[in-house]
Amino acid sequence: MALEAGCKWIQLRMKDVAVETVRQLAEELKKACENRHALLIIDDYVEVAREVKADGVHLGKNDMPIEEARKLLGEGFIIGGTANTFEDVKRHYEAGADYLGIGPFRFTTTKKNLSPILGLEGYRNIKQQMIEADIILPAVAIGGITVEDIPAILVTGIEGIAMSGAILQAHDPDAEIKRILTM
């Protein structure tokens, strides 16, 4: 659905699911992403990302370290990491991450063991610290974001927005995706 509506960056995130189930869906999704010239990022499952030749992997705070994933995947894969503090940002930057998923913006039911809520002020603070430390990495806002939040978040210096709940819970997800992509 997201691909058909025009999304060009898809993350497959399946928590507490058998690896074979993730692998099977990842293989199908990889083909669909290739057909629509979209990137596929696999959340957590580094081996699955390598096996299906996904474009990359996203690693949460309790997942495989970025350095280890880079050794397994090589330079041809995109590796992102979740950050909640500037210390997280610095650690991911030094480990060779290609992008950051910074959040959560607000409370979300899609994540267990939720880190402290950042909000707009948290994003501004982290982006300012990144500038001061000369850390240049794309930062994507994550966690509980609605369509109405997008303009204010982008003013903080955040470069991208990750959304799932707001789209999946929309009355018309296809129309919601199209509306987001035209903002």
TrEMBL record:
The chain positions of domain Thiamine phosphate synthase/TenI read: 2-167
Q: Provide the binding site for Mg(2+).
A: 44, 63
In its UniProt entry, the species of origin is given as Bacteroides graminisolvens DSM 19988 = JCM 15093
Biological process annotations from GO: thiamine biosynthetic process; thiamine diphosphate biosynthetic process
Q: Does the keyword Magnesium apply?
A: yes
What EC number(s) does the entry state?
2.5.1.3
Question: In which residues is 2-[(2R,5Z)-2-carboxy-4-methylthiazol-5(2H)-ylidene]ethyl phosphate bound?
Answer: 108-110, 144
- Residue positions annotated to bind 4-amino-2-methyl-5-(diphosphooxymethyl)pyrimidine are 11-15, 43, 82, 111
Give the protein's biological function: Condenses 4-methyl-5-(beta-hydroxyethyl)thiazole monophosphate (THZ-P) and 2-methyl-4-amino-5-hydroxymethyl pyrimidine pyrophosphate (HMP-PP) to form thiamine monophosphate (TMP).
**NCBIfam families attached here?**
PRK00043.2-3 (NF000736), thiE (TIGR00693)
GO MF annotation: an example: thiamine-phosphate diphosphorylase activity
* Record's catalysed reaction(s): 2-[(2R,5Z)-2-carboxy-4-methylthiazol-5(2H)-ylidene]ethyl phosphate + 4-amino-2-methyl-5-(diphosphooxymethyl)pyrimidine + 2 H(+) = thiamine phosphate + CO2 + diphosphate; 2-(2-carboxy-4-methylthiazol-5-yl)ethyl phosphate + 4-amino-2-methyl-5-(diphosphooxymethyl)pyrimidine + 2 H(+) = thiamine phosphate + CO2 + diphosphate; 4-methyl-5-(2-phosphooxyethyl)-thiazole + 4-amino-2-methyl-5-(diphosphooxymethyl)pyrimidine + H(+) = thiamine phosphate + diphosphate
Q: What family name appears in the similarity comment? A: Belongs to the thiamine-phosphate synthase family.
**Origin, by domain of life?**
Bacteria
Gene Ontology cellular-component terms for this entry are: cytoplasm
This chain is encoded by the gene named thiE
Which cofactors are named for this entry?
Answer: Mg(2+)
- What is the recorded name of this protein? Thiamine-phosphate synthase
User: Keyword set for this entry?
Assistant: Magnesium, Metal-binding, Thiamine biosynthesis, Transferase
